[in-house]
Known about the structure:
The protein is of the alpha/beta class. A 6-stranded mixed sheet has the order 1-3-2-4-6-5, with helices on both faces. The chain has one domain (6-188): 3-Layer(aba) Sandwich (Uracil-DNA Glycosylase, subunit E). The protein has helices at 6-13, 48-53, 60-71, 97-114, 123-131, 137-140, 158-163, 168-188, and strands at residues 32-33, 39-43, 79-83, 118-122, 145-147, 150-155. β5 and β6 (150-155) form a beta hairpin. Bound molecules: uracil. Uracil (URA) binds next to α3.
Amino acid sequence: MADLSWENIEQQITNCRRCRLYQQRNHIVLGEGNRSADIMLIGEGPGADEDAIGRPFVGKAGHLLDKMFSAIDIKREELYITNVVKCRPPGNRTPLDEEAEACLPILRMQYALIIPKIVVCLGATATRYVYDRDARITRVRGQWLDKNGTLFMPTYHPAALLRDESKKKDAWQDMQSIAKTYAVLRQEK
Ligand code: URA
Protein backbone atom coordinates (compact mmCIF):
# COMPACT_ATOMS: atom_id res chain seq x y z
CA MET A 1 0.00 0.00 0.00
CA ALA A 2 1.70 3.18 -1.18
CA ASP A 3 1.93 6.09 1.25
CA LEU A 4 -0.60 5.16 3.89
CA SER A 5 -1.79 8.46 5.32
CA TRP A 6 -4.95 10.50 5.75
CA GLU A 7 -3.42 13.15 3.47
CA ASN A 8 -3.07 10.54 0.74
CA ILE A 9 -6.70 9.52 1.21
CA GLU A 10 -7.77 13.16 0.94
CA GLN A 11 -5.75 13.53 -2.25
CA GLN A 12 -7.21 10.36 -3.72
CA ILE A 13 -10.81 11.29 -3.10
CA THR A 14 -10.58 14.94 -4.15
CA ASN A 15 -12.39 15.11 -7.49
CA CYS A 16 -12.61 11.30 -7.51
CA ARG A 17 -14.08 9.88 -10.70
CA ARG A 18 -13.31 6.21 -10.17
CA CYS A 19 -16.98 5.38 -10.70
CA ARG A 20 -20.06 7.09 -12.04
CA LEU A 21 -21.36 8.15 -8.63
CA TYR A 22 -19.39 11.40 -8.95
CA GLN A 23 -21.89 12.61 -11.57
CA GLN A 24 -24.70 13.34 -9.13
CA ARG A 25 -22.94 13.84 -5.84
CA ASN A 26 -22.93 17.09 -3.90
CA HIS A 27 -20.36 15.99 -1.31
CA ILE A 28 -17.97 13.11 -0.94
CA VAL A 29 -18.64 11.57 2.48
CA LEU A 30 -15.32 10.12 3.57
CA GLY A 31 -16.33 9.33 7.14
CA GLU A 32 -15.69 10.93 10.49
CA GLY A 33 -14.92 10.29 14.09
CA ASN A 34 -12.08 9.13 16.21
CA ARG A 35 -9.15 8.09 14.05
CA SER A 36 -7.81 6.04 16.95
CA ALA A 37 -11.17 4.37 17.58
CA ASP A 38 -11.42 0.81 18.81
CA ILE A 39 -14.75 0.53 17.01
CA MET A 40 -15.24 1.26 13.32
CA LEU A 41 -18.77 1.33 11.90
CA ILE A 42 -19.30 0.71 8.21
CA GLY A 43 -22.59 1.52 6.47
CA GLU A 44 -23.58 1.25 2.83
CA GLY A 45 -23.32 4.72 1.34
CA PRO A 46 -24.42 8.30 1.93
CA GLY A 47 -28.11 9.14 1.69
CA ALA A 48 -29.61 12.51 0.76
CA ASP A 49 -28.85 14.18 4.10
CA GLU A 50 -25.27 12.93 4.13
CA ASP A 51 -24.73 13.97 0.51
CA ALA A 52 -26.08 17.43 1.32
CA ILE A 53 -23.66 18.12 4.17
CA GLY A 54 -20.77 15.71 3.68
CA ARG A 55 -21.04 13.78 6.95
CA PRO A 56 -22.03 10.13 7.48
CA PHE A 57 -25.19 8.99 9.26
CA VAL A 58 -26.74 12.38 9.96
CA GLY A 59 -30.28 11.59 8.77
CA LYS A 60 -33.02 9.45 10.31
CA ALA A 61 -30.93 6.26 10.26
CA GLY A 62 -28.07 8.20 11.86
CA HIS A 63 -30.28 9.40 14.68
CA LEU A 64 -31.31 5.85 15.41
CA LEU A 65 -27.66 4.75 15.25
CA ASP A 66 -26.76 7.44 17.80
CA LYS A 67 -29.57 6.25 20.07
CA MET A 68 -28.46 2.61 19.78
CA PHE A 69 -24.90 3.42 20.79
CA SER A 70 -25.89 5.81 23.53
CA ALA A 71 -28.09 3.00 24.94
CA ILE A 72 -24.92 0.94 25.45
CA ASP A 73 -23.02 3.96 26.78
CA ILE A 74 -20.75 4.41 23.80
CA LYS A 75 -20.46 7.96 22.53
CA ARG A 76 -20.25 8.89 18.86
CA GLU A 77 -16.86 10.50 19.63
CA GLU A 78 -15.50 7.05 20.52
CA LEU A 79 -16.33 5.68 17.07
CA TYR A 80 -15.13 6.06 13.53
CA ILE A 81 -18.05 5.96 11.11
CA THR A 82 -17.84 5.47 7.36
CA ASN A 83 -19.46 3.67 4.42
CA VAL A 84 -18.57 1.21 1.68
CA VAL A 85 -19.09 3.90 -0.98
CA LYS A 86 -18.34 7.53 -0.29
CA CYS A 87 -20.75 9.07 -2.81
CA ARG A 88 -24.53 8.79 -2.77
CA PRO A 89 -26.04 6.21 -5.10
CA PRO A 90 -28.96 7.94 -6.89
CA GLY A 91 -32.26 7.33 -5.14
CA ASN A 92 -30.38 5.50 -2.37
CA ARG A 93 -30.15 2.37 -4.46
CA THR A 94 -27.69 -0.34 -3.41
CA PRO A 95 -24.21 0.44 -4.77
CA LEU A 96 -23.32 -1.53 -7.89
CA ASP A 97 -20.52 -4.03 -7.59
CA GLU A 98 -18.23 -1.89 -9.75
CA GLU A 99 -18.94 1.17 -7.56
CA ALA A 100 -18.14 -0.71 -4.36
CA GLU A 101 -15.00 -2.21 -5.89
CA ALA A 102 -13.81 1.20 -7.08
CA CYS A 103 -14.23 2.64 -3.58
CA LEU A 104 -12.97 -0.24 -1.44
CA PRO A 105 -9.28 0.79 -1.63
CA ILE A 106 -10.24 3.94 0.31
CA LEU A 107 -12.03 1.90 2.99
CA ARG A 108 -9.03 -0.42 3.22
CA MET A 109 -6.74 2.56 3.78
CA GLN A 110 -9.05 3.94 6.47
CA TYR A 111 -9.07 0.55 8.16
CA ALA A 112 -5.28 0.26 7.96
CA LEU A 113 -4.82 3.69 9.53
CA ILE A 114 -7.36 3.25 12.33
CA ILE A 115 -6.51 -0.39 13.14
CA PRO A 116 -9.82 -0.90 14.98
CA LYS A 117 -10.37 -3.81 17.32
CA ILE A 118 -14.03 -4.13 16.39
CA VAL A 119 -15.67 -3.54 13.01
CA VAL A 120 -19.45 -3.34 12.91
CA CYS A 121 -20.92 -3.98 9.47
CA LEU A 122 -24.24 -2.19 9.24
CA GLY A 123 -26.50 -4.04 6.83
CA ALA A 124 -26.15 -6.36 3.87
CA THR A 125 -23.82 -4.25 1.71
CA ALA A 126 -21.16 -3.69 4.38
CA THR A 127 -21.49 -7.32 5.42
CA ARG A 128 -20.96 -8.49 1.86
CA TYR A 129 -17.91 -6.35 1.12
CA VAL A 130 -16.24 -6.44 4.52
CA TYR A 131 -17.29 -9.60 6.34
CA ASP A 132 -17.91 -12.26 3.71
CA ARG A 133 -18.85 -11.94 0.02
CA ASP A 134 -21.37 -14.76 0.27
CA ALA A 135 -22.91 -13.83 3.63
CA ARG A 136 -26.61 -13.18 4.04
CA ILE A 137 -27.28 -10.67 6.76
CA THR A 138 -30.27 -12.56 8.17
CA ARG A 139 -28.07 -15.64 8.70
CA VAL A 140 -24.83 -14.11 9.96
CA ARG A 141 -26.00 -11.13 12.01
CA GLY A 142 -24.79 -11.29 15.57
CA GLN A 143 -21.93 -13.66 14.77
CA TRP A 144 -18.43 -12.47 15.57
CA LEU A 145 -15.73 -13.28 13.07
CA ASP A 146 -12.08 -12.97 14.09
CA LYS A 147 -9.88 -11.92 11.15
CA ASN A 148 -6.25 -11.67 12.26
CA GLY A 149 -7.21 -10.42 15.70
CA THR A 150 -9.86 -7.91 14.60
CA LEU A 151 -13.43 -8.80 15.47
CA PHE A 152 -16.11 -8.27 12.84
CA MET A 153 -19.81 -8.13 13.71
CA PRO A 154 -22.58 -7.90 11.11
CA THR A 155 -25.85 -6.41 12.25
CA TYR A 156 -28.92 -4.84 10.69
CA HIS A 157 -28.65 -1.41 9.11
CA PRO A 158 -30.55 1.16 11.20
CA ALA A 159 -32.63 2.06 8.10
CA ALA A 160 -33.80 -1.58 8.03
CA LEU A 161 -34.85 -1.25 11.68
CA LEU A 162 -36.86 1.85 10.80
CA ARG A 163 -38.64 -0.09 8.05
CA ASP A 164 -39.20 -3.25 10.08
CA GLU A 165 -39.58 -2.92 13.84
CA SER A 166 -39.53 -6.70 14.32
CA LYS A 167 -35.77 -6.66 13.65
CA LYS A 168 -35.10 -4.44 16.66
CA LYS A 169 -34.98 -7.30 19.15
CA ASP A 170 -32.11 -9.01 17.30
CA ALA A 171 -30.36 -5.68 16.77
CA TRP A 172 -30.54 -5.01 20.51
CA GLN A 173 -28.94 -8.38 21.19
CA ASP A 174 -26.14 -7.47 18.77
CA MET A 175 -25.64 -4.12 20.51
CA GLN A 176 -25.32 -5.84 23.87
CA SER A 177 -22.80 -8.26 22.44
CA ILE A 178 -20.80 -5.31 21.06
CA ALA A 179 -20.96 -3.56 24.45
CA LYS A 180 -19.72 -6.66 26.25
CA THR A 181 -16.82 -7.25 23.87
CA TYR A 182 -15.85 -3.57 23.96
CA ALA A 183 -15.85 -3.61 27.77
CA VAL A 184 -13.55 -6.65 27.80
CA LEU A 185 -11.18 -5.00 25.31
CA ARG A 186 -10.99 -1.86 27.42
CA GLN A 187 -10.16 -3.88 30.53
CA GLU A 188 -7.31 -5.54 28.64
CA LYS A 189 -5.78 -2.14 27.75
N1 URA B 1 -27.03 5.02 5.33
C1 URA B 1 -25.76 4.59 5.19
O1 URA B 1 -25.51 3.45 4.87
N2 URA B 1 -24.79 5.47 5.41
C2 URA B 1 -24.99 6.74 5.77
O2 URA B 1 -24.04 7.48 5.95
C3 URA B 1 -26.33 7.16 5.91
C4 URA B 1 -27.33 6.29 5.68
